[in-house]
Specification:
Layout lengths: L8 H12 L20 E7 H11 L3 E7 L13 H8 L3 E4 L6 H10 L5 E3 H5 L4 H18 L23 H18 L4 H28 L4 E4 L5 H6 L3 E2 L3 H9 L5 H9 L9 E5 L5 H12 L4 E4 L10 H17 L1
Length: 337
């Protein structure tokens, strides 16, 4: 889809100037003049976490739909619907996390017959192990198709190896995905290509500021340790230089929806009574179980602050940068206590 006539150079220059003046509090997409008949590129994202990134890049010239757009829905065991397939079938661009996290999206693309380009965040992330994780994901999908089974996991199961697929918590990956989106959108709508690139650059600036903020948190708390119930926020914790003291077997079991061995639970609980204890417990607000409730209770009884972070956008939040900024504020507040 191209626009005619092309936007004048003055408008493009104006958009760039506006982007440079965008504040750090949000993704800062540039508003551009539109009318009721302005065409919009149809983007379908697997979750609203990525939908927020797509919206920041596409701005006024994109219509973004997220298959999962509620904090009450667990992406791990999501069962797609025929309506989801119809939505994906109408997409001009598809955005998914990949790495086995949202395997339902691969099913939807196949079921809909869509030929829209697909941006796979894990695949383009450049993180060590991402290529292997993406290859394993594709191999799993092909095997499932060959056997006539659905490619997604059963509820409570999650196809991932040691690779942490929660890459929307990694500012560098979000920057890379934004650039990929801008490139794809520019091919679909050449007349708005500069607009998309400007928005992607603005989002990249917000991501860079998040990294700087995370670094400052780490500098303010050298040697600080934290515990997590799941590896969801690990990339953000890494950006802050914080040590994750969680037993790997514990977080893996919780993520898989299984019960950790009693000895591992005891090891986890001991983090709150150690001298000194961990500085904070970061809990996945969308996953609760008797085990996570026990861990939360133990942390609170020991006076260890509890920080909740989610896998999809919290209620009332639509902006990725603001979301991650709020997470960092919560983390800093907990460590300051």
């Amino acid at each position: 889809m191209s626009r005619s006539p092309l936007r004048p150079a003055a408008l493009v220059a104006g958009l760039a100037a506006l982007a440079l003046g965008a504040t750090a509090c949000g993704s800062g997409q540039v508003d551009a003049p539109t009318s009721a008949d302005t065409p919009q590129v149809k983007i379908v994202a697997s979750t609203d976490a990525w939908g927020a990134v797509a919206r920041a890049v596409g701005g006024n010239y994109a219509q973004v739909t997220s298959v999962i757009d509620s904090p009450d829905v667990d992406p791990h065991g999501y069962e797609p619907t025929p309506q989801n397939a119809a939505t994906v079938g109408g997409a001009q661009l598809v955005l998914m996390n990949g790495g086995g996290y949202d395997a339902f999206m691969t099913d939807l693309v196949a079921a809909s017959g869509s030929r829209a380009p697909v941006v796979d965040a894990v695949e383009v992330s450049g993180i060590e192990g991402a290529t292997e994780a993406a290859a394993d994901d594709h191999a799993h999908d092909h095997a499932a198709e060959a056997s006539g089974e659905a490619g997604h996991e059963h509820e409570g199961e999650h196809a991932h190896g040691s690779f942490n697929e929660h890459v929307w918590y990694d500012p560098d990956t979000v920057t890379t995905v934004a650039q990929q989106l801008a490139d794809q959108l520019g091919r679909i709508d050449p007349g708005a290509a500069e607009y998309f690139r400007t928005n992607a650059a603005t989002l990249a600036g917000g991501a860079a500021q998040l990294k700087s903020k995370a670094t400052e948190i780490g500098r303010a708390h050298p040697g600080a340790t934290v515990a997590v119930t799941e590896p969801v926020p690990d990339y953000l914790l890494d950006a802050a230089g914080l040590k994750n003291a969680t037993p790997q077997e514990f977080s893996a079991a919780v993520e898989e929806g299984t019960d950790p061995p009693a000895a591992v639970v005891a090891q986890m609980l001991g983090l709150f009574t150690a001298n000194p204890p961990v500085g904070a417990l970061v809990l996945n607000s969308q996953t609760t179980s008797p085990t996570t409730d026990q861990v939360r209770s133990a942390a609170q009884q020991a006076g260890v602050p509890v920080v909740e972070m989610s896998e999809t956008l919290p209620q009332g939040t639509t902006d990725w940068v603001q979301w991650m900024n709020a997470n960092l504020d919560e983390l800093a507040g907990a460590l300051n206590r």
